[in-house]
Amino acid sequence: MITIITSSEINYYALETLVDFTGIVPQSSINFCTGDRVSYIQSGKLNVVFNQVKKSNKFPKIIDCEIKGNYLYIHTDIIGWIIESLTRSEESRVTNNNGRTIPMEESFAYKQGIHQKPYLDQIIHDFQVQFISFLDANKVPWEQIHPSTNPILSLTHDVDSIQAKSVFRYIYWMIQGITCLNIKKIKIIIDRIKDINNLDSDPHFSFDIYKNIEGKFGYKSTFYLLSLAHYLGREGRRYTLKNKKLSDKVRDLVQNGWEIGLHPSRVTHLSQKMLKKEVSRFNKAFHYIGNSIGVRNHYLKAIFPETWRLQELLGFKYDSSLGWAKSPGFRAGTAKPFRPFDIKDNRFLNVWELPLIVMDGAIQGSSSEITDQIIKIAEESFQNYAPLTLLWHSDRISNRDYPEHSAAYQKLLKYFKDRNCIGIPATEVIDLYENYYKTMASHRRRINEPEIKFQND
Description:
Mean pLDDT is 86; it is low at 449-457. The protein has 3 domains: 2-94 and 110-140, no CATH class; 152-163 and 202-437, TIM Barrel (Alpha-Beta Barrel), CATH 3.20.20; 165-200, no CATH class. The protein is of the alpha/beta class. α1 (9-22) crosses α2 and α12 (367-382) packs parallel to α13 (403-418). The protein has helices at residues 9-22, 78-87, 89-92, 108-111, 119-137, 167-180, 183-197, 207-216, 244-255, 272-286, 306-313, 367-382, 403-418, 426-441; strands at residues 2-5, 24-26, 30-34, 46-50, 65-68, 71-74, 142-144, 152-159, 222-225, 232-233, 236-237, 259-262, 294-295, 318-319, 341-342, 347-348, 352-353, 358-359, 388-391, 422-423, 444-446.
C-alpha cells in the first residue's frame, strides 16, 4: 500500500498519476511524500520524498535521486512535469494560435527535440527503476500490474467526406485547372474525373473497405462523424447525418462491433451552443446519449483546458484531439489515456483524454517508409504499456488517390497482428485503462484529511 502525503490537490493528482503510470504495487506500506510534508511521515516506514525544486525549462534526461536508509529522495521535479504535461498549462500561455492546437514549433518538446518521444513516460520509467531498486534494497516484495498482456491498438477514422463521385467536386477541380491555365493539369483532372466516375463504388464511402480489412485481422475501429445541418456550409462541401445510405451503413457497423463518435466542426471548440446542436443531431440520428460517445475535433481545433471543460459539461466520455497535425508524436509526453486536471477549478475533469499519436496526413513517402515510421512510434508506445492511437482518414484507403497510404495501412495491420496486438474501439480502450487505474487506486490511499490541515499552511 502506498500512502500519499502532500500539500495540495494538484500534487495529489500528480503523485496518484505517477503511481498509476508505474503500475508498481509494493507488498508493504510505503509513504510518498512531498518535501514540505516530511514532518508528517511516521518513523520506521519506507519513504519516497519528492523535493519540488524550481523546475528547469529543460526537460531532464535522467532523474536526480539518492537513497539514504529507508528514504529515497527524488530531487528532480517529476511532480511539476506531470502537471505541466497533463494539464496542458503550456498551451494556456500561448496566444494567437487561431483557436487550433498550439503550434508544434512553439512547444517546449519540439524546441528540445523530444516531441516524437514519450518524454513523460520515460521520466516516469526512470523513477520506476529507482523505486524498484529501493524496494529491492529494503527487501520489500512487489508486483507490477499492466492494463493488458498484449499491446493495444486504437484504430480511428475521421470521416470528412463520404462522396468522391460528385458533380460539384468535378466542377471545383475543373475551375482549379482552368484558373491555373495549365493544359497538362487540366488533362490530369479530366482523366481523374473519368477514373473516379467509372469506379463501381465511391472511394470516399469506404466503411466496408475498412470493415473487411480490419475484420480480417480481428480488429474493430472507431469512426468519427461530422454532424452538420447542411452538406454545404462553413466546413465546405461535406455531408449530413440525414443521408440514409450513411445511416444504414453506420448501424451495420455498430451492430458488428465497430464504433462511432462525434467529429465536431471547427466552430464548436469553445461554443457550448454550437456543440450542443451537433450533439443533438448526432443523438437523433443514431439514438446515442452524450456520455456514451467520444469526440475528435475537426482539424484538431481545440484550446485546452477550455475545450475539455466544454466536453465535460456536455457529458462526453472522452476526447481524442490531443495530437500534432504536422508530425506523429506525443503532445502530452504519453500515449496513455488520462483524466486531465483543471488548475483553475483545482479538480479532476470528468472526461478522459485519449492522446492521438499518429495521423496519416502527417507522414509521407512510399508505403514502406510510412509503415516504418509508424512502427517506430508504435513501439515507443508499446514499451511503456500505452496504446497506439492511429488516425487514418476514411478517404485515405483509396488506391486511386492515396495508393501509398492505402498499402501502408494494410501492411501496418499485418505487422500489428504479428505483434499480437489487440485492436479495439476507442471507448473500449478508455474502459480498459479506467478499470486498470481503479485497480491501482485500490493499492494506494491519501492520508486522512484530519491528519493534515491545509488551511494552516
